[in-house]
């Protein structure tokens, strides 16, 4: 990651990361004060060599039936991360100031759990993932990066673990984020976070 991209990544991580989960306003998913929950295990996935930078164009999660295009997300005017639009054809979004899937560091992909009157979002079943499940990112250069889930956590938005989600790691990892838990009039009270590590890649 370039120094400029890293600064933008850290800035966004320390600011509020907004994800609209119901199509009625936005929900804060990364408060300024990170939580103190234990760091997920990083020993479940076998080691794999990292890849060069290549933008993700698709994401497949066989265990929950996800096969989605991936759009790019930047920063909104208030410094928060943009979210995918609320549309009938919902898709995931990769935060472009994070590493691309397969690069060393945490690559961040966001998705909605619901999309207003359109119904279920692309990450509606994200909380059903379990340790050992596969996630496959299709890259712009034609390669694929396969990740193995280390942990799936549902956390209160007030206790979002920013350091664990965005902090530096010494291997290629993936973070998938959506909303979860009980629903209020404007959104959801919790976030679902998937932690995964690179296990293999196509040549």
From TrEMBL:
Keywords: Hydrolase, Signal
Signal peptide: 1-25
Recorded superkingdom: Bacteria
Region (Disordered): 25-48
InterPro entries: Sortase (IPR005754), Sortase_dom-sf (IPR023365), Sortase_F (IPR042001)
Molecular function terms, GO-annotated: hydrolase activity
Protein name, as recorded: Class F sortase
Natural source organism: Streptomyces olivochromogenes
């Amino acid at each position: 990651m370039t120094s400029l991209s890293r600064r933008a990544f850290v800035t966004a991580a320390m600011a509020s990361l907004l994800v609209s989960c119901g199509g009625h306003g936005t929900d804060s998913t990364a408060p300024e004060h990170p939580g103190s929950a234990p760091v997920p295990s990083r020993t479940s996935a076998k080691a794999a060599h990292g890849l060069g930078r290549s933008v993700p164009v698709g994401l497949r999660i066989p265990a929950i039936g996800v096969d989605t295009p991936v759009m790019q997300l930047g920063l909104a005017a208030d410094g928060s991360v943009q979210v995918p639009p609320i549309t009938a054809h919902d898709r995931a979004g990769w935060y472009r100031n994070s590493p691309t899937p397969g690069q060393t560091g945490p690559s961040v992909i966001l998705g909605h759990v619901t999309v207003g009157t359109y119904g279920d979002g692309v990450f509606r079943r994200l909380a059903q993932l379990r340790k050992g499940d596969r996630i496959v990112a299709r890259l712009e250069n034609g390669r694929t990066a396969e990740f193995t889930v280390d942990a799936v956590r549902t956390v209160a938005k007030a206790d979002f673990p920013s350091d664990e989600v965005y902090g530096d790691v010494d291997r290629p990892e993936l973070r998938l984020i959506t909303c979860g838990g009980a629903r209020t009039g404007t959104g959801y009270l919790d976030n679902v976070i998937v932690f995964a590590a690179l296990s293999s890649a196509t040549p």
